[in-house]
Design a protein that fits this description.
Length: 209
């Protein structure tokens, strides 16, 4: 990447855009609602079960003018979900400012592994064991989404739940490849611990992006 372009990316004036699309939110609190998704490239958290590993290398995704991303988003929806990759790898301030100035709601899905930038109407925190969230984000998260791949993930989920605010909604979501095995465990766990809710990747059942 050219040095001049890299500076624009570092400043948040351009972002490595992997893809953007209008669809139905499939997970968590806002499932079933229409939203415009902006997927930003770049992630070094490295979850072995990640279903968008092609997002990890930011160099594979073209630096795109942040103003253009804003314009594209507003053609379709006033709810914009920023995801990745790990979007907080980059400064989200200009993106969210531009969207909010135009009346859009800004949502983010993040591991919280990097400092929180930008102004968000909804923060979905999905912490990962390999690179824990920054402490500052726990009390700001609106929902906590813990992915359950094996039994040990329940204990990790409880550790994370102890750090968020009392108003944060708690979700357990089966990792897709082991869903048939983990869903019965999650259902049993939620019934015994009703502070939690079950989240499913409903967009995959609906066969939409």
């Amino acid at each position: 990447m050219q040095e001049s372009v890299q500076k624009l990316v570092n400043d948040g004036k351009m972002l490595p855009l992997m893809e953007e699309f209008y669809t139905i939110q499939g997970e968590g609190f806002h499932k079933g609602t229409a939203a415009y998704f902006v997927r930003i490239g770049g992630c070094d958290v490295g979850c072995h079960w990640c279903d968008v590993k092609e997002s990890w290398n930011a160099d594979l995704h073209p630096p795109t003018d942040t103003g253009l991303i804003i314009e594209n988003s507003l053609k379709y929806s006033d709810v914009v979900v920023v995801t990745g990759g790990e979007p907080l790898t980059w400064d989200m301030s200009l993106l969210t400012q531009g969207l909010r100035d135009r009346g859009a709601k800004t949502h983010i899905e993040t591991s919280g592994a990097y400092a929180l930038t930008g102004e968000w109407d909804w923060i979905c925190l999905s912490p990962k064991k390999v690179k824990l969230p920054k402490e500052e984000i726990y009390q700001k998260a609106h929902e906590l989404k813990c992915i359950v791949y094996n039994k040990s993930d329940f204990a990790f989920a409880e550790e994370q739940a102890a750090k968020v605010s009392d108003h944060c909604i708690l979700y357990l979501q089966p990792e897709w490849s082991v869903r048939e095995k983990m869903i019965p465990m999650i259902v049993d766990y939620v019934m015994k611990n009703p502070k939690w809710k079950v989240s499913l990747q409903t967009h995959k059942y609906l066969n939409i992006p």
